[in-house]
């Protein structure tokens, strides 16, 4: 969170004391103080108390200016309107109704188009809390890590590998093979997928650089 102002050269000390008009609104860090003052309009002087006011007073002393406050008519910090103008304190700075605005303000792209921000003087961490729910047991939770397309491709690959290996076994094996052999081969691939099996049976058809070799 930061505050901004619109001086052309904020680091240059003013040659003579100047009265600046500062846009300011009450928030959880800066409180409004109405001080009786017969010389002020309405007999009351608008003041603020807070850490941003301390920063403002430090700048006023260093840059040689005094200041008065002006609250935004709508009491907001400023948002972009449909016609391109801004409400709140940002609008006051954009229209040059005030010399600068005292925050803290957050930076966003819309505000950055019409005003200049100073270096950050404070940061705020925002967190969202939610209630902790009771644990739920989902018997199908093992399917969640992979999408439906991946599971479909994996099952199709297992079926295709089972058919291919069974066909090769029928062609190259001298033993009579049955449907039970096909089912066993399929479960072998499933076991490998689930990392429950570390080997094939000795009847597996192996591939070498020289071609198909039957065992």
How would you describe this structure to a colleague?
This protein is α/β, with parallel strands linked by helices. The protein folds into 2 domains: 2-112, D-Maltodextrin-Binding Protein, domain 2 (3-Layer(aba) Sandwich), CATH 3.40.190.10; 144-213, no CATH class. Helix content is 30%, strand content 20%. It is built from 5 helices and 8 strands, in the order E-E-E-E-H-E-H-E-H-H-H-E-E. Strands 1-6-2-5 form a 4-stranded mixed beta sheet, with helices on both faces. The chain has a two-stranded antiparallel sheet with strand order 3-4. Strand 7 (206-208) and strand 8 (211-213) form a beta hairpin. The longest helix has 25 residues, at 148-172. It is rod-shaped, with a radius of gyration of 38 Å. The chain starts with a strand and ends with a strand.
**Structural category:** alpha/beta
* Proportion of helical residues: 25-40%
Number of domains: 2
* Rg on CA atoms, Å: 38 Å
Distance between the termini: 74 Å
Strand order within the widest beta sheet: 1-6-2-5
What's the CATH H-level superfamily name of the largest domain?
A: Periplasmic binding protein-like II
Quote the average pLDDT. 76
Beta strand count = 8
Taking pLDDT < 50 over at least 5 consecutive residues as the criterion, the unreliable ranges are 1-10, 199-215
Q: What's the shape?
A: rod-shaped
Strand content: 15-25%
CATH topology of the largest domain: D-Maltodextrin-Binding Protein, domain 2
CATH-defined architecture of the largest domain: 3-Layer(aba) Sandwich
| CATH hierarchy, class of the largest domain | Alpha Beta
What composes the largest sheet?
4 strands, mixed
Strand/helix succession:
EEEEHEHEHHHEE
Number of helices: 5
